[in-house]
Specification:
heterodimer; A: mainly alpha; 12 helices; B: 13 helices
Chain lengths: 279, 332
């Protein structure tokens, strides 16, 4: 089954790469300015349909803006929010989890209590609550999603560190005179990388869906920035007249998230020995 | 009983923490809720008077304690948008969300348990791979998009199902439990029951599929885990029929994990209900939350979020208690 497992990583990785390229090179790839309105061309269907215009591959929206360009630019927000959130939440979660697991006692207790409070919320609700009170904006969005995602890393890393710290190589490092923080970050934490990578991959998928959901609810980035979620929300009123306004942004979200989940699945199969035994 | 009492006591500090965080959030919100609500025409005197009426001129700790002491007495104040007591609004909308939640859970169980169990029993077969691919697709589908697509195809193109609301306009439902399916049945009003059922189908399917996708994988892996245990080999060795092995030995043990995840996923179901209710204009508390946010009705928003959090917490606690029923080995 090795080849099938790698196939997942290849396909998932390719889709993630596509997102990366489309986000970074959006100005080069997009055929038009995503904000440019051509009112006489409003609600044009995709090129291959009856009334489609060759100028617009995926059609235009209610203001005559090119859908393809907007979808390409929309990937930027998914990418920026997804990557930054996963990185920051991972950093905070791992740091707290490692410290709590390694030092135990009161540190562990405090970190545990705080994470319990965050776990007491369904995570999308934390994000909704924060966005409701702080208002729209990319930074607020990242903050909201980060605050709702760090706990997972924290819990997993804490658990792993708890068992790792009892291992012989840690005792050896300490016996050689290693200071606590040195031993923790040089010897213990690197051993959690496999699990953290898997969590981070799945977290990226969840964050991208959450960002789209928040934008859909009008709680994401400001309306003038094109995002897949807000495109869906705007297109919803034209669902019967112009279904392409909702079909394409939704497909973009789906394909991206599917690819990242596939990658996460593949990575987990390789990293998780327990699962490997089950096969 | 002791267990439940102990868990309830343990929940108090967490709920206090949650309520304080939500309370704090409202105060770091940019802009003054009073001037936002009263609009540009309000004079400084108006604003000052309203602030005093709501106690917003007091120190934050006093405000929080005041909020708590009222909350304990069930007084959450009035909604600014609807001009009605917050609790009454929540109470009226809650049954819709509960009905949707149960229906979605049912959809999820009906899809996930057979698919997961079957994939595990036939594991590594073509069917197993197909089942897992379907689950992966399900996890990756944004449920608001699925909802909109259902509205487009089933509601718009095929005109099979109603696309918004809980029941056809003008149909009477006696307010007994406020769960429309139950109330219409109790009243013997079958056309109304059918209408409520049809209105519930698409939202429940939308919300249920995302849960089903996660549960399928959990069901599969927990069945796989149990299948490898020695007692299963023993059962087979002593000649127990395969049917009994699967139903009595494997499923019963795998159910523990499945029920746990089911409970934990209720949180996802709650936040999912916010989105699904918005897509289908389904009048539950998720829809109310989004309305309160867009109207900047901070007080209602605050109470609703608190309510969601407490509901989630209580459900998780119930799941814990449910374990000991399913698995007598677990004692608290």
């Amino acid at each position: 089954m090795l080849s099938f497992r790698y196939l997942k990583i290849w396909i998932g990785g390719a889709i993630l790469l596509l997102l990366l390229v489309s986000g970074v090179a959006a100005p080069l790839l997009a055929p038009r300015d995503p904000q440019a309105q051509t009112l006489e061309d409003r609600l044009r269907p995709p090129r291959w349909t009856e009334n489609g215009s060759p100028a617009y591959l995926l059609g235009t929206d209610n203001l005559g803006r090119d859908m393809l360009s907007r979808i390409i630019y929309g990937s930027r927000i998914s990418l920026i929010v997804g990557a930054t959130t996963v990185f920051l939440a991972g950093f905070i979660g791992c740091l707290l989890g490692a410290v709590a697991g390694y030092f135990g006692d009161i540190t562990d207790e405090i970190v545990n209590k705080v994470s319990e409070i965050f776990l007491a919320f369904p995570f999308l609700l934390i994000a909704i609550a924060i966005m409701a009170f702080l208002g729209q904006g990319v930074l607020n969005l990242i903050l909201a999603l980060m605050l709702s995602r760090w706990v997972q890393y924290c819990r997993v890393v804490r658990g792993e560190v708890l068992s790792l710290r009892e291992r012989d190589f840690v005792t050896a490092a300490k016996a050689l005179g290693g200071k606590d923080f040195y031993v923790l970050f040089r010897h213990v934490v690197p051993n959690t990388v496999a699990s953290v990578t898997v969590i981070a991959t799945f977290a990226m998928a969840i964050v991208i869906i959450s960002e789209a959901s928040l934008s859909f609810l009008g709680l994401g980035v400001p309306a003038h920035i094109p995002t897949w979620g807000s495109m869906l929300s705007e297109g919803r009123s034209y669902i019967n007249r112009a279904p392409w306004l909702t079909i394409f942004p939704g497909l973009a979200i789906f394909i991206t998230v599917f690819g990242i989940n596939l990658l996460g699945d593949g990575l987990r199969d390789i990293f998780d020995p327990k699962l490997r035994r089950q096969r | 009983m002791n267990t439940i009492r102990r868990r309830l006591l343990g929940a108090v500090p967490v709920i206090l923490g949650i309520s304080f965080l939500i309370f704090l959030l409202m105060h770091i919100a940019p802009g003054d809720p009073v001037s936002l609500l009263l609009g540009d025409d309000a004079t400084p005197a108006d604003i000052e008077r309203t602030r005093r009426e709501w106690g917003l001129d007091q120190p934050i700790v006093v405000q929080y304690l005041d909020f708590l002491s009222r909350a304990v007495r069930g007084d959450f104040g009035k909604s600014l948008k609807f001009n009605e007591p917050v609790l009454k609004l929540v109470w009226e909308r809650l049954p819709a969300t509960i009905e949707l939640g149960f229906a979605s859970m049912l959809v999820a169980i009906l899809i996930a348990v057979p698919l997961g169990v079957y994939s595990a029993i036939k594991h590594n077969s073509l069917l197993d791979h197909a089942g897992m691919s379907v689950a992966l697709i399900g996890v990756s589908l944004p449920n608001f998009w699925l909802g909109i697509m259902l509205i487009y195809f089933l509601g718009g193109q095929l005109n099979l199902l109603p696309v918004a609301g809980r029941i056809e306009y003008g149909m009477e439902v006696p307010p007994i439990t406020r769960l429309y399916l139950v109330d219409t049945l109790l009243a013997g009003n079958f056309p109304a029951f059918w209408s409520a059922f049809k209105h519930l189908l698409m939202p429940a399917f939308t919300l249920g599929t995302s849960l089903a996708a996660i549960m399928t994988r959990i069901a599969r892996s927990s069945v796989l885990e149990v299948m490898r245990q020695d007692f299963i080999t023993t059962a087979r060795a002593k000649g127990v029929s395969e049917k009994v092995v699967i139903w009595r030995h494997i499923l019963r043990n795998a159910m523990i994990t499945i029920v746990t995840i089911l409970g934990l996923q209720l949180g996802a179901l709650l936040s999912g209900s916010v989105i699904t209710e918005t897509v289908f204009s389904f009048p539950g508390i998720g829809d109310l939350l989004i309305q309160s946010i867009s109207a900047r009705d901070y007080r209602l928003t605050q109470v609703l979020i608190l309510f969601f959090a407490i509901m989630y917490f209580v459900v998780n606690m119930l799941v814990d208690v449910l374990y000991s029923v399913i698995d007598p080995r677990i004692k608290f």
